[in-house]
Amino acid sequence: MHGTLLAARFFGVSVLAARQEAIARHFADRRRPSGAAQFDTVPWWSGEYTGAPLIHGAVAWFECTVWRTYDGGDHTVVVGSLLSAVRAADADTAGVLIFHNGRFQPMTERAA
């Protein structure tokens, strides 16, 4: 994914719902297929502006152009320029999946 993202002009971000931990684990698995094949078992559609894959059932989706990249040591920080932002109709009740303290967990409360 790293090489693909760095070579791309566009990318999509899907903010996964708390119930989508299996999908997050799929993309975190280094043994998953590479390239487009990694999406074969995941429900997705092409973003309207970029054609980037966006995951069905997510809480929100962003489509971006690659604006800048920065060396992050053992990774690359990619900063995008936002083209589109969409929130799912049930976003307030679905909860967001986060990875914190070494595990996936739901984040369902709004910050005060």
Tell me about this structure.
With 112 residues, the protein is α+β, with helices and mostly antiparallel strands. It has one domain: Electron Transport, Fmn-binding Protein, Chain A (Pnp Oxidase, Chain A, Roll), CATH 2.30.110. It contains three helices and seven strands. It has helices spanning 2-7, 21-28, 91-94, and strands at residues 10-15, 44-46, 53-55, 60-71, 76-87, 96-100, 103-107. The strands form three sheets. A three-stranded antiparallel beta sheet has the order 1-4-5. Strands 2-3 form a two-stranded antiparallel sheet. Strands 6-7 form a two-stranded antiparallel sheet. The longest helix is centred in the first third of the chain and has 8 residues, at 21-28. The radius of gyration is 14 Å and the shape is globular. The termini are far apart.
Which keywords apply here?
globular; 3 helices; 112 residues; two-stranded antiparallel sheet
Question: What secondary-structure arrangement, pairings included, does this model have?
Answer:
Elements: H1 2-7, E1 10-15, H2 21-28, E2 44-46, E3 53-55, E4 60-71, E5 76-87, H3 91-94, E6 96-100, E7 103-107
Antiparallel strand pairs: 1-4, 2-3, 4-5, 6-7
| Helix content class | 10-25%
The CATH architecture name reads: Roll
Average of pLDDT: 91
Query: Could you say which overall geometry the principal axes of the C-alpha atoms support?
Result: globular
| Individual helix count | 3
Low-confidence stretches: none
Q: If you compute it from the alpha carbons, what radius of gyration comes out, rounded to the nearest whole angstrom?
A: 14 Å
Percent of sequence in beta strands? 35-45%
